């Protein structure tokens, strides 16, 4: 079984919307506004790229990334790996950044049960919440920013469900206040 990793930039209050910029979101670009850049805080992003064997995205993130990521040299390893999009509405993949369309969480279960390395879920707030609620997330890679954003798309759902226990397996605090937190989901 493959490891499913949700990776996200989040505010202290759990918002992940518009970290690098998103049209219409009041706090768009919050990861770069008022937070001093510290390259050490982003080491995990490079490691994720070299360790992952596939990307799993929701439709909204896929449509935002497809026109941009293929041209970014920093994402060369992501651009070379298999991509999957979970969507009930996407008619076809974007030819600039081809992907396999999965239609349901059951399709994700089938993918997760194949042989191969870790599957990385980037952005994709709605998908991340659905995967967590279905008990499919194995690990979280979080960069927690010292900000309270209030409104916005949240990483974690508000579903009334049993407690999910997490084991902190890696952490670091950087001079700019960002915290790296890596959690394994306890089974």
TrEMBL record:
SUPFAM superfamilies found in the cross-reference section: Dihydrofolate reductase-like
Domain Bacterial bifunctional deaminase-reductase C-terminal residues, every copy: 2-179
Signal peptide, first to last residue: none
InterPro entries in the cross-refs: DHFR-like_dom_sf (IPR024072), RibDG_C (IPR002734), Riboflavin_Biosynth_HTPR (IPR050765)
Top-rank lineage group of the source organism: Bacteria
Pfam families: RibD_C
Protein name per the record: Dihydrofolate reductase family protein
Originating species: Rhodococcoides yunnanense
Upper classification of the organism: Bacteria, Bacillati, Actinomycetota, Actinomycetes, Mycobacteriales
């Amino acid at each position: 079984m493959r490891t499913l990793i949700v990776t996200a930039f989040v505010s202290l209050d759990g918002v992940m919307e518009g970290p690098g910029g998103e049209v219409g979101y009041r706090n768009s670009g919050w990861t770069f506004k008022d937070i001093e850049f510290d390259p050490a805080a982003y080491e995990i992003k490079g490691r994720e790229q070299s360790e992952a064997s596939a990307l799993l995205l929701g439709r909204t993130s896929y449509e935002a990334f497809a026109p941009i990521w293929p041209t970014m040299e920093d994402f060369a390893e992501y651009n070379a790996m298999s991509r999957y999009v979970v969507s009930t509405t996407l008619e076809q993949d974007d030819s600039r950044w081809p992907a396999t369309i999965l239609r349901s969480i059951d399709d994700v279960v089938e993918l997760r049960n194949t042989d191969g390395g870790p599957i990385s879920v980037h952005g994709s707030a709605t998908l991340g919440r659905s995967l967590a609620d279905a008990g499919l997330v194995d690990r979280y890679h979080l960069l927690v920013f010292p900000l309270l954003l209030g409104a916005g798309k949240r990483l974690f759902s508000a579903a009334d469900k049993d407690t999910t226990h997490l084991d902190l397996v890696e952490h670091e605090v950087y001079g700019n206040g960002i915290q790296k937190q890596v959690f394994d989901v306890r089974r």
